[in-house]
Specification:
The chain is α+β, with helices and mostly antiparallel strands. It has two domains: about 450 residues, Rossmann fold (3-Layer(aba) Sandwich), CATH 3.40.50.1820; about 90 residues. Helix 1 packs across helix 16, helix 11 packs across helix 12 and helix 11 packs parallel to helix 17.
Length: about 725
């Protein structure tokens, strides 16, 4: 099918797409390429690779030069599948870049009907360039390179029109495609498949920009790399690779940083085995050759099948379905460890870059589509909210495992998390559930990386933002539950960076004037930063830089303000590590918690206080020791845990019951004494037995059901 260079869909629609695939949630936030532009004559640029022909468009009475789908790499097919990309060798004659090429292979979705080109192909490693007003080598404009999100599974450059960003700041905007899903991230080191091909694609695109952008009037020494969600994780990861020095100079990581759990794919090796088994390659002489010989469409079908199949008998987990891994090449260590050593190349390169990072105010929105399946299994109506026991015994532990990478005593930590976020009211509990998800997987990693970058850094700038405006099209949140508070959902800022103006011109949605003003501001902040490393200018509210003590950030709402200590009423965190030290404070009307974590192995001190209960907990380990005291008007509990193997002594006393229990194990030994006015029991166990009590109420029934939970995996 041929595509008219001027062809665009007839109406404008910006949207947040949340795709829930069985037990998976993949969120793709994108902006369609619909525009009021008028097509004019073609334009030609001479490069070292050959001549390139683009098109000229008039957008809001200004000229934008567009070069679409320029190949930066050879097709990653045949023997180049599952390999690092190879730089494109150039062409003879004139390369026609007036139309958009195919997307990289991915699962089809409702987005297809909006695409100028709905086709897909393995041959997809291209980039698009947007140049404002004049096309001349002498302009020496700053360059902004955008990496889209989509859980490393979906997305394409053609969904994002860089014209408005280019015009707003007089910068050149480049938007890149990179390999996705199994094609971009399959890993099996024993077979020479090291993964991260999608990240290598991004890096090669940056090298292409560095070598060729001057031919388009760009300055290769003033390049800003920015991205959102999976794109945010990507640009943050690129920022700790020392060999990238000189390819870019500033970074904007939107809703994704290297300190976050979703920066690294935890289940990569298991997935490689499963998809290989599905395709009959696991037991072959050469897994790699077998996988390279599989037709692309069949490989994509197997990817979809494996990622949608739940694993029986597992608990709720939060992990990528696909993504980057520690490969021994780009990442010799986990990313957070790479920037721990202040003399390392990773740390020094990261500190040399001007850095903006931030979030929307309701990152937990991407968890919404998973709630119906949890509600079905746990027998509650999620329109009413979430029961506190479901949060405390299922969702909360999964968040802890994700946050601490399974390196924390889950039973003890669950007490901390449950006490901090538990609410009796289901409406309040679901809000706290979204807050906990946001805090653990987005906001806390953001604060951590800001501290990493700003501490002792006099060579570059650090800025934080929080975006607070909702998606402008109410039809996109029409199906949300009644407790949804219309916060700023994951990816909402993209509507402001990529053409919210078109809503006013072509769509039935009325955009308030203050939102148009906010778009002008965010476009200027982003492009000012791209040019100077400072987002400020005289026509904007001041955005103060971030530093670890004051923790100031820009709150982007209808009124732009400077605030500090992100969600300090909920959590304030300080991190320091030669292993790890964490101080966290939680405070609300119902509960106040102070927690300190320090580790040569681990030491934790926690205090809980409310009108109803006071708890003091101390954890210390050369092996494992825990002392806990609970006191209220109704109950007093003292618990001591100490282990060279395992020993627990517990005493419970109240007006109604007194219990003394001793647990000791070099296998398993339990002595328990129970006494009350009604019953006295003495019991001893000298072997390992499992006793399941018959549930006496619906809450206990739900807790037992949760012990049989199937795995649920989500992407952001």
């Amino acid at each position: 099918m041929l595509f008219d260079p001027c062809r665009r869909p007839q109406s404008v629609e910006n949207y947040l797409l949340q795709i829930m695939r069985a037990v998976q949630l993949t969120v793709l936030v994108a902006t369609t390429l619909l525009t009021t532009a008028k097509c004019h004559e073609s334009i030609r640029v001479h490069t070292g690779l050959g001549d390139i022909q683009g098109i000229v468009q008039t957008i809001r009475n200004e000229t934008v030069y567009q070069f679409r789908s320029i190949p930066y790499a050879e097709p990653p097919t045949g023997s180049l599948r599952f390999q690092k990309p190879v730089l494109h060798g150039g062409w003879s004659g004139v390369l026609d870049c007036t139309t958009f090429g195919p997307s990289c292979l991915q699962q089809h979705s409702i987005l297809d009907k909006y695409l100028p080109n709905p086709n897909q192909s393995e041959d997809c490693l291209t980039l698009d360039i947007y140049i404002p007003r004049t096309l001349s080598r002498s302009t020496n404009r700053s360059v902004m390179v955008f990496v889209f999100g989509g859980g490393f599974l979906v997305g394409q450059s053609m969904l994002y029109d860089g014209s408005y960003l280019a015009l707003a700041g007089d910068v050149i905007v480049v938007i890149i495609n990179y390999r996705l899903g199994v094609f971009g991230f399959l890993v099996n080191p024993a077979q020479g498949l090291n993964g991260n091909y999608g990240l290598w694609d991004q890096r090669l695109a940056l090298q292409w920009v560095h070598a060729n952008i001057a031919d388009f009037g760009g300055n290769p020494n003033s390049v800003t790399l920015f991205g959102q969600s999976a794109g945010g994780f990507s640009v943050s990861l690129q920022s700790i690779i020392p060999n990238n020095k000189g390819l870019f100079h500033r970074v904007i990581a939107q809703s994704g940083v290297v300190e976050g759990h979703f920066a690294i794919w935890q289940n990569a090796y298991t997935y490689a085995k499963d998809v290989g088994t599905a395709l009959g390659c696991s037991n072959t002489t050469s897994y790699a050759k077998c996988m390279r010989d599989i037709p692309a469409e069949r490989l994509l079908q197997a990817q979809t099948s494996v990622t949608q199949t739940p694993s029986v008998g597992k608990t709720l987990e939060f992990d990528l379905s696909m993504g980057p891994v520690v490969d021994g090449d780009l990442f010799p260590l986990p990313p957070s460890e790479m920037i721990k050593n202040q003399t390392s190349g990773s740390y020094l390169f990261f500190h040399s870059l001007d850095f903006i990072t931030g979030n929307v105010d309701t990152e937990g929105s991407i968890f919404l589509s998973l709630l119906p399946s949890i509600a079905k299994e746990d027998n509650f109506n999620f329109s009413d909210g979430v029961p506190s026991d479901v949060f405390c015994h299922e969702i909360g532990p999964a968040l802890l495992n994700a946050f601490f990478e399974n390196e924390v005593n889950s039973t003890s930590a669950e007490t901390l998390l449950c006490s901090a976020y538990r609410r009796a009211d289901m409406f309040k509990q679901v809000q706290q559930t979204l807050n906990a998800y946001s805090d653990a997987l987005y906001y806390t990693p953001t604060i951590k990386i800001l501290g990493d970058h700003s501490e002792g850094n006099s060579s570059s700038s650090t800025y934080q933002y929080v975006f607070r405006r909702p998606i402008p099209d109410p039809s996109l949140t029409k199906g949300y539950p009644p407790w949804w508070q219309n916060g700023s959902a994951h990816g909402a800022e993209l509507y402001y960076l990529f053409r919210i103006y078109d809503y006013q011109d072509n769509h039935i949605v009325t955009v308030p004037e203050q939102d148009a003003g906010l778009q002008t501001a965010i476009l200027k902040y982003w492009t000012n930063f791209a040019k100077t490393g400072n987002p400020n200018s005289d026509d904007l509210p001041e955005w103060e830089s971030y530093e670890a003590v004051s923790q100031k950030y820009c709150s982007m709402d209808t009124t732009i303000t400077q605030e500090q200590h992100l969600y300090g009423s909920r959590i304030t965190a300080n991190y320091k590590s030669d292993d790890i030290e964490i101080t966290a404070n939680y405070k609300s009307d119902d509960i106040e918690i102070t927690a300190n974590y320090k580790s040569d192995d681990i030491e934790i001190n926690a205090n809980y206080k409310s009108d109803d209960i006071e708890i003091t907990v101390n954890y210390k380990s050369d092996a494992f020791k825990i002392t806990a005291n609970y006191k209220s008007d109704d109950i007093e509990i003292t618990v001591n845990y100490k282990s060279d193997a395992f020993k627990i002594t517990a005493n419970y006393k109240s007006d109604d019951i007194e219990i003394t229990a001793n647990y000791k194990s070099d296998a398993f030994d339990i002595n328990a004494n129970y006494k009350s006015d009604d019953i006295e029991v003495n019991d001893s166990l000298t072997s390992v037995n499992i006793n399941v009590n018959k549930p006496t109420n619906s809450t206990q029934k739900r807790e037992q059901d949760m012990n049989k939970r199937k795995i649920k995996t989500i992407d952001y």
